[in-house]
Design goal:
Layout (H helix, E strand, L loop, with lengths): L8 H5 L1 H9 L1 H9 L5 H4 L9 H24 L4 E2 L4 H7 L7 H20 L9 E4 L3 E4 H31 L2
Parallel strand pairs: 1-2
Antiparallel strand pairs: 2-3
Helix pairs in contact: 2-7, 2-8, 3-7, 3-8, 5-7, 5-8
Length: 172
């Protein structure tokens, strides 16, 4: 992940590919979640880990945070991007009871809105930056990289949870 604000020509030409990765996040999650129901939604692969239900709720809420951050960086000069406590959100926003199908649909809708906003920007807009309260300066490009990777990382995690659930259920 690129940490600086200066962008080179390779980065600029990679924006369409990065936008496509970002756009495809909900599709990737939908494929991984196909057939998930019942006990599998709430299975914990290890103590202290999140369930499928909780991860999908987290993705929906994180995408809302991303929507705000994208808009701040595009509209404001050097805005402050406030970190959020994902564990407090999971606990206090009742991720353990959220419906995965609704969370996925929320993620899908907000990601589509974010994609529509970002795809129409001139490449120079991706140089705009805000100051994250934990990570320091972050360009719009870096935010886009992070959110594209966020869905991909959690899709892999969801697949691993599903595989572990099948292993546990197959034991005599």
């Amino acid at each position: 992940m690129r940490r600086g604000i200066i962008m080179d020509s390779d980065t600029m030409s990679g924006i369409p590919a990065l936008l496509e990765r970002f756009r495809r996040g909900p599709e990737l999650l939908a494929v991984v979640l196909t057939g998930v129901f019942g006990d599998e939604e709430d299975f914990l692969a290890a103590p202290g880990k999140w369930s499928i239900r909780q991860i999908v709720a987290h993705l929906a809420d994180a995408e809302m945070v991303g929507a705000h951050r994208f808009r701040q960086v595009i509209a404001e000069d050097n805005p402050t991007l406030v970190a959020f406590d994902q564990d407090a959100w999971a606990r206090n926003l009742d991720y353990a009871r959220r419906k995965p199908k609704q969370s996925l649909e929320t993620f899908r809708r907000i990601r589509a809105e974010n994609y529509e906003l970002l795809k129409g920007l001139p490449e120079t807009a991706f140089e705009r930056a805000g100051n994250h309260t934990q990570n320091g300066p972050m360009t719009l490009l870096r935010l886009l990289e992070g959110y594209a990777g966020h869905a991909e990382t959690h899709a892999r995690q969801l697949q691993e949870i599903r595989e572990e659930f099948k292993r546990v259920k197959a034991k005599p």
